[in-house]
Amino acid sequence: MTRIDFIIDCALCILFKLTGPLVRCMPKSISLALGRTLGSLVYCFDLKHRAIAYANMKSAFGHRDSPQQLASMTRRFYRTFGENLMEIFFIPLVNKDYLKEYIEIVGRENVDAAFQRGKGVILLAMHEGSWELSNIICAHLAFPFNFFVRDQRYPRLDNILNAYRFQQGCRVIHRGNQLRQLLQVLSRNEAIGITADQGGKKGSLVHFFGREASMSTGAVKMALKSDAAVIPCFYVRLNGPYIRVIFEPPYQLKLSGDKDADVRNNLQGLISRFEKYIDAYSKEYLWSYKIWKYGRDKRALILSDGKAGHLRQSQAVADKLRVCLGERGNTLDVDIVEVKFKNKLAGRALGLGLCLFGRYRCQGCLACLRICLDDEVYAGLISHKYEFIISCGSALAPVNFLLARENLAKSCVIMRPGLMSVRKFDLVIMPCHDRPPRAVNVLNCSGALNLVSDAYLSEQSQKLSQVHGLKQPASGLTLGLFIGGNTKDFRLPAELVAEVTKQLKLAALNTGADILATTSRRTSVAVESLLEAEFKGSPHCKLLVIANKNNIPEAAGGIMGLSDIVIVSPESISMISEAAGSKKYVLVFGAAGLGRRHKRFLEHFAKNNYIYPVDAASLSGVIEKIWKNKPPVCYPDDGSRVKEAVGLLI
Length: 650
Prior knowledge:
7-stranded mixed beta sheet; 48% helix
């Protein structure tokens, strides 16, 4: 025990001994009112566990309840939790008169019938209701009762609780090497009180409100070994000190001969019974621990701004996240939602307002999102619980921040998050040309993230070859041409593209190369017409894909995979990054009108030999020189660095 734990233990022990007699002297209604007040104070100041409780309720009920309803449920849980804590002081008062006045027993006949079997009874519960008092209640029901407990963090306080239990005739069995002792208890036809939840690392994964959670296997294993009756129990506060104890009929164990499967399947059946009670009496359950921590099924949300390049970058991060989770035995489901603001002003106002918001302030509110987002988009974003939120672009950073706080999820932002501080996010991935700040949660990457990998290129090139009958030329050289188009601040002149096609045809003539070409959605009609005129009937052009006319999904990946040298127009950072990531020679022809940020990107890539900047008029000569000398291919290794950063994130 650390020195701090020792001090806390001593303080709690003294407080408990001083407070107990005072609480027992008060009318129970006043004591429980103080408990509710205590719970409300804990709700206000215990921000971490409050956030966990809310996120857990969202995971269980988010598909039907709004954030405001979930926040109200969380407050009720804390008030009930305060009552349960205060009720611990009532334990010395419990006797037959107390049970007669305050406790309603439902299903007592189920317990009596179970004892008639003569093989012991396992009273199985969850961490819900006033579980300390409920165990004392069971000890007063005229049958031998044993309480299975784990040692608490604070031993002095634990000793006081155990003294209360012993005083009321409750026999305590401590967790440890106790299986033989538990089986002996059952063989004497006695009852054991044990909980089914909080299985930890050693528990079994079963579905709890639709998602995998670790639950304790002890009760089911003992029942399978001893044939003891398993009775699910639930405790509900009716009003003030009045409590209803529900004993369900014994659970009928199902046997298949597979021991592990029997444990898992029967535990699932029992947990399903408890679900209906927790659903009906949600404030009774202990929501403030990480219920789904050990579950294998994880969910990520990608926020899209409608830009294909930004979406591909987010998908690249999600792919690395899926790989990292897979190495840990987890799965990842990814949802993609296109975010639509009600108007441009709403998006800007949201980003400006969130500069001042803290970590937990927005949870359960989301008024900002409700006001600023399209109603249908808002409804889709709040209906699920996610562990990871991923977005690309400054416009989506505020939405990412709010949803990450709402879900208590890890947040990943690609590119500079606008006016918001990078410290508000768990991981910020920024390219070097954006001049990222130095921070432990900021990863510098060379260019735009992408989905290009050896496996991706192989798959796409095979599809393209099969559909269009493409074969490797006799010379062994294939040239891939990627023509973009106009942007907000850039114009791609048809005259420049005409020079590029002239040079490519000359290079193909001199080397015997094949040409595979594609355009983008941004390519102008004039440039499209020029390409069709130049390449139509050319013996060297084996494929021309006009994206606005006959686009095919595998065009970009397939051409990159089949090409030995890739020629790219200069305006698209995403396209150049993908080409460089294909591990091919990449030539970028120059053009006027590029901004400073764009020029920094090209200079960085050229400095590291990821690309070869060339004038359009000298394109043929450079192609022939590269193919003759075959210099080493250099490419950015952003993928492995992103994977490492994401691995630390989880």
